[in-house]
Write a structure and sequence with these properties.
- This protein is mainly alpha-helical and 124 residues long.
- Helix content is 57%, strand content 8%.
- Helix 2 packs antiparallel against helix 3.
- The longest helix is centred in the middle third of the chain and has 26 residues.
Amino acid sequence: MAKNKNKILKEIMGALALPWTALSSQALFMLISRVMALKAKQLQPAESLKLLLSIENTLYDLEGTHSVRYGKGIHTKHRHTSYHRFFIEHVGPDDTILDIECGNGALLMISPQTGPALALRALT
């Protein structure tokens, strides 16, 4: 499916003949936002929502990928949201946390120096 998407994207970019790499981030954002808004307006509400939620899902995946890249292997949400602090404050030393495919296992990095010695079980 990814190959098909790439083929379609190349076809669209070729047809528009726009130098995408020459656009500033702000100009690209404005262009994409405007195109999405115009297309969403043309569609019936259910189709519009389906399109916009599909775009949101794609952006969410991209945000995660680039947050981990920016955070040198750890999603930046761990620094911004005091993610680990919640577990340190709410999980006792005798508690066990079951982490089922919740990311890259960053919770496993909670050390005894920063909080209780948590027993973590990661299942993938």
